[in-house]
User: Which sequence fits this backbone?
């Protein structure tokens, strides 16, 4: 069953606001990934994190790999309407043949 | 460069009918995957193929079969569709385990 707990489940924000979402797990992961899914499309990788404590940015997006290796967060600054979509965290454990475990997703809606 | 291509985009089946979802990638990737996406559940791995000629069960394999026809193609078969298999199905691929996953645009399947 699901091993990643992603929150919040959904967010409805005003354009220009900052957004924060996170993922927690009872297990240790060696890689954390954040994906975005636009309506009617497949998920697309936003940020990949490979090291505990790592903080990585991609434009207005910033993600961190938790020190305990059991959590990660994603921040979006100054949201714009095209940020709308579903954001998924995904974790990968070593020796797990590369299979990813996905969180339940955070649905983001941005009001212009 | 099309990436990962899935067909069909939409399908409606009656309970007990069979069908095959097709997936092809043109990136010379070794590994291919089938996921299903259900509301509030994130993406769950059905089957995967680490390399041409191998397939393995994922998290939710019951009711499905797969075929890695060649390096490019990985099909998912529902032998006797059930309403519980109503979902959005995504094919994905990566060069090797642990590397960036590329997703197709999905197949929306309804089983009545």
Assistant:
């Amino acid at each position: 069953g699901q091993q990643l707990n992603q929150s919040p489940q959904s967010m409805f924000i005003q354009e220009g606001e900052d957004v924060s979402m996170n993922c927690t797990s009872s297990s240790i992961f060696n890689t954390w990934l954040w994906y975005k899914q636009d309506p009617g499309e497949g998920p697309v990788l936003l940020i990949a994190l490979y090291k505990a404590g790592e903080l990585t940015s991609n434009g207005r997006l910033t993600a961190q790999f938790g020190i305990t290796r059991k959590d990660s967060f994603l921040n979006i600054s100054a949201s714009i309407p095209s940020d709308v979509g579903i954001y998924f965290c995904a974790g990968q454990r070593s020796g797990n043949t590369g299979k990813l475990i996905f969180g339940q997703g955070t649905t983001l809606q941005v009001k212009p | 460069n099309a990436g990962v291509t899935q067909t069909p985009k939409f399908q409606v089946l009656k309970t007990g009918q069979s069908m095959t979802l097709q997936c092809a990638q043109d990136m010379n990737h070794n590994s291919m995957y089938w996921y299903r996406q259900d509301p509030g559940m994130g993406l769950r791995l059905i089957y995967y193929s680490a390399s041409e000629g191998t397939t393995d069960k994922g998290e939710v394999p019951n009711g499905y079969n797969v075929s890695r026809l060649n390096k490019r193609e990985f099909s998912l078969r529902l032998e006797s569709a059930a309403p519980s298999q109503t979902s959005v199905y995504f094919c994905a691929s990566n060069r090797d385990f642990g590397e960036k996953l590329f997703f197709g645009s999905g197949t929306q399947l309804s089983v009545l």
In short: Chain B is about 0% helix and 50% strand. Chain B has a mean pLDDT of 93. The two ends of chain B are 36 Å apart (CA to CA).
